[in-house]
Amino acid sequence: MRVIAGKAKRLKLKTIEGSDTRPTTDRIKETLFNMINMQLADCDFLDLFSGSGAIGIEALSRGAKSAVFVENNRASVECIKDNLRITKLNENGVVLALDVLSAIRTLEIQGRVFDVIFMDPPYNCLLEKQVLEALQFSNIIYYNTIIIVEASIETEFDYLEHTKFKIYKEKKYKTNKHIFIELKE
Predict the structure, then answer these.
(1) Which of 43, 127, 166, 168 lies at a CB distance of 3.0 to 4.6 Å from 121, suitable for a disulfide?
(2) Distance (Å, rounded) from C-alpha 3 to C-alpha 8?
(3) What string of DSSP letters covers 153-176?
(4) pLDDT score, position 32
(5) Which pTM does this prediction carry?
(6) Is the pLDDT of residue 106 over 80?
(7) How far apart are CA 76 and CA 156, in angstroms?
(8) Rounded to an integer, what distance in angstroms lies between the CA atom of residue 185 and that of residue 179?
(9) CB atoms within 10 A of CB 75
């Protein structure tokens, strides 16, 4: 796994051994960042369920002003910190070793607001639903915040019609998909 573009282009990133993480492939990561490239310049990026930190690091490499990485697995937290040092992007990255819902509350207290939120929760556990339900009433998002969920191809998002969110774009791959969500008008 490597950084695809930007300041840290071609640098190899560490990953966690075992099946606890599912690193996003370079091809899917490149497709994702081609889709959001215009929103990255000077943005504040939130990477939930960060794993190795590859998505948030890619955002920093491509011009994001800051990235907050949220991960509660100790080995993954150390991997993110190592990857930030390897890429020399650690000045712009903050790692929160918390579960995602606790991290959202912490970020609310800190008064942080994010332009782009990416989450890659464990598949088919409905964690994205819990996070979206928390985010819809959170002050860490605003009208133009983009929320991207990486999910299994089978994951349904029909519950969003009962929230403040709507899907504005969906990109399907062989086994997973990216759902692009924003606040309803």
Answers:
(1) 127
(2) 6
(3) TT---GGGGGSSEEEEEEEE-SSE
(4) 93
(5) 0.93
(6) yes
(7) 28
(8) 18
(9) 14
The residue-averaged pLDDT of 98-122 equals 97
Identify residue 179 by its one-letter amino acid code: I
For CA atoms 172, 10, 1, 39, give the dihedral sign.
negative
Q: What's the rounded mean pLDDT across residues 84-99? A: 95
Please identify which residue in the block is written with the tokens 């191809």.
153
What pLDDT band is residue 49 in, cutting at 50, 70 and 90? very high
60 and 9 Cβ atoms separated by less than 8 Å: no
Distance CA 132, CA 127 (A): 9
For 37, the token pair is 């490239």
The count of C-alpha atoms lying within 13 angstroms of the C-alpha of 100, restricted to the half-sphere facing its C-beta, is 21
**Longest CA span, the chain:** 43
Calculate Rg over the CA atoms of the chain.
15
Per-residue pLDDT, averaged over 66-94, amounts to 95
| Residue 67 contacts residue 91 (beta carbons within 8 Å) | no
Q: Is 154 exposed, middle or buried (0-12, 13-18, 19+ CB in 10 A)?
A: exposed
Where do the domains of the chain lie, and which CATH numbers do they carry? 37-153+163-172 (3.40.50.150)
Helix (H) or strand (E) holding 11: none
Whole-number Å distance between alpha carbons of 44 and 68: 8
What is residue 18's predicted lDDT score, i.e. its pLDDT?
A: 61
